[in-house]
Amino acid sequence: MIKIINTLNQNEDVQKEIDSLLNRSQLEFGEVNRLVEEIIKDIRDNKDKAVLEYTKKFDGIELKSMIVTEEEIEEAFSSCDPELIEALREARDNIWDYHSKQLNNSWIQNDKKGVMLGQIYNPVEKVGIYVPGGTAPYPSTVLMNAVPAKVAGVKEIIMVTPPSKDGKINKHILAAAKIAGVDKIFKVGGAQAIAALAFGTESIPKVYKIVGPGNIYVAIAKRIVYGYVDIDMIAGPSEILVIADETANPEYVAADMLSQAEHDTLASSILVTTCENLANKVKVELEKQTEKLSRKDIIEKSLKDFGAIIIAKDLDEAVNLSNEIAPEHLEVMVQNPFEMISQIKNAGAIFLGEYSPEPLGDYFAGPNHTLPTSSTAKFYSPLGVDDFVKKSSLIYYDRKALETNKNKIIKIAESEGLTAHANSIKVRFK
């Protein structure tokens, strides 16, 4: 079901195997690109009419209205298990507390005479959140995207999510939206939802930024509309990499790998270990535990195509491999996990020790679960408050301060051949 790669075996091309694990990008599908471009153009031209037609075509439901009413939200909320509501509220509080520490303050400095410089932080005014439907509902995605926006001070949060065949939205998603403080919810998914948020329709407001994960059509639509609006990132399939030594519990390691493999067939679950005995035990555990899981078919294909157990010669090599792969989720199950933190350079979220499993971060601890995938942790960060604020520079010089520096500014402007720039300074000192 899952391959074992031994870096000590000279006959194996380890780099080739690692490259094959990473070669699962969703973003190079020519036919899908063309289709998404057509959908976006149609939405721009025909607005609500086109959105409703695509909802009928792709979701199999003919809607009279896309907006979710307050009555629908209250009905969904009241029908949820009270224990789930309590758990979602506590998760929201944890997410709020964590992200509130990311807030930055505007600042002004005037340490030079006649000069004031500064930076002003303002929240993005309108944000769109995409919440997938697909094979499973994700109330946690609602919290992870909406709460940091609320912390940042976003005035209006618009959520889109695809309806089911009966024209309704999953009650857990609606409950999470109410708890998170989402302002408006629309029954629309796919590329058409992204286009509607980017350009606006008669019903759906145009936003300034779109966040949230989705399938290939959503990912490509976000990439196409970037520039008309901002986006968070292009989210690929889910990933986990576990670094483990001989002290790790193979049952725990296998369970955590499976927690990501069940997302979809393109998900990647990798173990890098210094212990061949552990590698063999984890392989047995993966097969044993998979038999008891509801998404067995998805898991088996995911592990077969994009899973691996890599045996490294030591922990230094294990960390180097992890940094090259740059996983979305990195679990460190070694005797002294804190000693390894300084070596880890590329990872979306880092889970330390055997009692910090990946689902803890997905649902409850507080750090965001919207994370960079497909090796983009080399240059992207988790979703956070900074994604929902923008900065403006403040510049003030009095006459004396400008006069002191005018010749230098004129010299630079003239070196670029921009005489009007130079003249803008000169006219003030005639």
From TrEMBL:
Cofactor(s) needed: Zn(2+)
Cofactor: record remark: Binds 1 zinc ion per subunit.
Active-site residues per Swiss-Prot or TrEMBL entry: E328 (proton acceptor), H329 (proton acceptor)
UniProt: substrate binding residues: S238, Q260, H263, H329, D362, E416, H421
E.C. no: 1.1.1.23
Pfam families, alphabetized: Histidinol_dh
Pathway membership, UniProt: Amino-acid biosynthesis; L-histidine biosynthesis; L-histidine from 5-phospho-alpha-D-ribose 1-diphosphate: step 9/9
Gene3D superfamilies recorded: 1.20.5.1300, Nitrogenase molybdenum iron protein domain
Family matches, as InterPro entries: Ald_DH/histidinol_DH (IPR016161), Histidinol_DH_CS (IPR001692), Histidinol_DH_monofunct (IPR022695), Hstdl_DH (IPR012131)
GO biological process terms held by the UniProt record: L-histidine biosynthetic process
Name the UniProt record assigns to this protein: Histidinol dehydrogenase
Species the sequence originates in: Gottschalkia purinilytica (Clostridium purinilyticum)
Taxonomic lineage from the root: Bacteria, Bacillati, Bacillota, Tissierellia, Tissierellales
Gene: hisD
